[in-house]
Amino acid sequence: MRSAWLDRMPDVVARRQAGQSYDEIGQHYGVRRERIRQVLAKYRPRDAAIRSPRGKRLAAKQQRAGARRAAMLTQYAAGGTVTQIACQHGVSRVLVDCAVRSAGIRRPSKVATVLGDVLRLEVQGLSQTEIAARTGLSQSYVSGLLVRHGVRRSTTVR
Predict the structure, then answer these.
(1) Closest CA to 29 of 11, 42, 43
(2) How far apart are CA 100 and CA 13, in angstroms?
(3) Are the CB atoms for 54 and 62 separated by under 8 Å?
(4) Measured in whole angstroms, how far is the alpha carbon of residue 35 from the centre of its chain?
(5) 22-73 confidence digits (pLDDT tens)
(6) Of 118, 146, 119, 147, which Cα lies nearest the Cα of 133?
(7) Taking the domains of the chain in order of start, what are their residue ranges?
């Protein structure tokens, strides 16, 4: 059996959009305002939430949070640190880190960037001393990187 409220829904929604309260709509149909709220929530849950003052506040809050999240992700992708972004937006580092992880943004770590620089210079034929001078690293650190990543064998005798 089809509910009589389904036939009345267009009128109920139109009255609600026109600014009538649940009480006024309920008086028109001879029911209490709670029944009108229930009917709207059941048959048109999204419309009912948007039309209520609390729903409007919640939607505005979610929109602001989405805009702030997008701004944080843009800053992170541009090279900002989690700590810098958290301070600028007045949120915790955990919140920024969670946003970055859920968005799937990956940046190479500083070690990976340094390793890439060292390997690129090694391929160009520079000595470990020259690589150390150009990258600002110690010669022993450069040597260790090259040995750990199989570019050069260790020359130490054990």
Answers:
(1) 11
(2) 40
(3) no
(4) 38
(5) 999 999 999 999 998 888 887 765 554 556 677 778 888 888 988 999 999 8
(6) 118
(7) 4-51, 62-103, 110-148
CB 108 within 8 A of CB 116: yes
Q: Say how many CA atoms lie within 13 Å of 151 toward its Cβ.
A: 17
Return all residues near 54 (Cβ < 8 A) that are at least 6 apart. none
- The string of DSSP codes covering 5-32 is HHHHHHHHHHHHHTT--HHHHHHHHTS-
Q: Is 0.85 surpassed by the pTM of this model?
A: no
* Cα–Cα dist 133/144, whole Å: 15
107-131 confidence digits (pLDDT tens): 766 667 788 888 888 888 888 899 8
Structure tokens belonging to residue 64 = 């602001």
The average pLDDT across 94-111 equals 80
Residue 118, C-beta contacts closer than 8 angstroms, at least 6 positions apart? 131, 135, 137, 142, 145, 146
